[in-house]
Write a structure and sequence with these properties.
3 strands
Length: 99
């Protein structure tokens, strides 16, 4: 319950995130944490700006979230094998150091 969890997947790709979550659940991998958070380092319009003009283009709102999946350290290898059986791979990108 209180074991250390490590990043298994972290990327700006919602579709793959959903597939990985589904694959881990089907394979019986337990104690998985998954979520997303706002990935832009600076929102437009300054503090208190609620309207983002980039959301009103031809394709609608842009998804800027970073999606993550965390698993227990001891389950890392089993999780990798589980998603490989489903034809997926994981990738962790550190957006804080990306240039």
């Amino acid at each position: 319950m209180f074991e250390k969890k490590v990043d298994f997947y972290k990327k700006k790709d919602r579709d793959t995130w959903l597939q990985i979550r589904k694959a881990l659940a089907e394979e019986g991998i337990r104690h998985v944490s998954a979520g997303h958070y706002f990935g832009d380092s600076l929102a437009p319009n300054g503090i208190g700006g609620y309207l983002d003009p980039r959301n009103y283009g031809a394709n609608g709102k842009i998804d800027r979230d970073i999606y993550y999946v965390r698993v227990r350290e001891k389950d890392m290898q089993a999780a990798r094998e589980a998603i490989r059986r489903h034809g997926l791979t994981t990738q962790i990108m550190d957006y804080r150091t990306e240039k």
